[in-house]
Amino acid sequence: MIKKLDLKNPEIARCILELQIASYSIEADIIGFNDIPPLKDTAESINTCDEIFYGYYINDVLAGIISYKIIEKVIDIHRVAIHPLFFRMGIANNLINFIEGLENNINKVVVSTGKENLPAVNLYLKNGYKKEKDIEISKGMYITEFEKNMKLPGL
Questions:
Q1: H-assigned helices in the chain
Q2: Contact by Cβ (8 Å): 134, 105
Q3: Mind listing the pLDDT tens digit for each residue in 18-54?
């Protein structure tokens, strides 16, 4: 079940933080970079975050999250994190499809991930995202930006 998360609830903020640490620690190992911003979060920083969060629950356990902002008809995905116990179950795919269908009047969706994070890169490519560019964020460390046009041609 997917539901909107109340970041002001300290228990939910704590669950998000625990999930992020578990998930992004694996990404950090994959890409060889431990300075991923969600690994620096605290329950308080999540509590005051201005992103929209949705969670994917399995038997009342938070298995995955997605967060985003909407800026001028663009969904800017900030986080997609799945707890390692729930990897390879299609949860990230379901969360991405959910928010793409949730918001009206959107022109495009943008997201970025570590260039070497092949599971995430493949997820976005599989979902119709196009690679836009690689950006060096630290010496020898790159993120890849993806974009998906949501407007139908001719409209």
A1: 10-31, 43-47, 91-102, 118-126
A2: no
A3: 999 999 999 888 888 788 888 899 999 999 999 999 9
Give the chain's domain count: 1
CATH of the domain at 39: 3.40.630.30
Does residue 155 belong to any structural domain of this protein? no
Which domain covers residue 90, as residue numbers?
A: 2-149
For residue 148, give Cα distances in angstroms to 88, 128, 132: 23, 6, 10
In a domain, 154, yes or no: no
Residue 71 lies in a domain: yes
- Residue 34, CA distances (Å) to 28, 40, 123 in order: 5, 10, 22
- Answer yes or no: pTM beyond 0.70: yes
CA-closest candidate to residue 146, choices 127, 65, 23 = 127
pLDDT of amino acid 153: 53
